[in-house]
UniProtKB/TrEMBL annotation:
Native species: Shewanella sairae
Keywords: Signal
Cleaved signal peptide residues: 1-24
Name of the protein in question: MSHA biogenesis protein MshK
Length: 111
């Protein structure tokens, strides 16, 4: 009788532990930027791809964009999508999408 109660208690504890782990896996990392982070989901034929504009360097004669931690210029392709324009805080893509810098970064950058 005692062994049966201990077994039931042990199974209940294991079940609670598994449920807690499943719930923890669904939590969002609080250190990530919010929805206005400049992250754009781009759907292509090969599946869904995330493009993140990390930074932009623009001078009178040249412009570079760091997307997904790689450096690109106008005319190059990022994950199969051509870059058609680079502004001081955004990048325009051939599929009509526009990647923008995280607002807090652009506010600080100009000061």
């Amino acid at each position: 009788m005692l062994a049966k109660k201990i077994s039931v208690l042990l199974i209940a504890c294991l079940g609670c532990t598994l449920m807690a782990q499943l719930n923890a896996a669904q939590l969002r990392d609080p250190t990530l930027p919010g929805d206005a982070s400049g992250r754009v989901d781009v759907a292509t034929h090969s599946g869904e791809q995330n493009l993140i504009l990390n930074s932009v360097v623009k001078t009178d004669s040249s412009a570079y964009a760091v997307i997904n931690d790689q450096i690109f210029t106008v005319g190059e392709r990022v994950k199969g999508i051509k870059i058609v324009g680079i502004a001081k805080d955004s990048v325009s893509l051939a599929d009509g999408r526009k990647l923008e810098m995280f607002q807090a970064v652009t506010d600080f950058k100009g000061q």
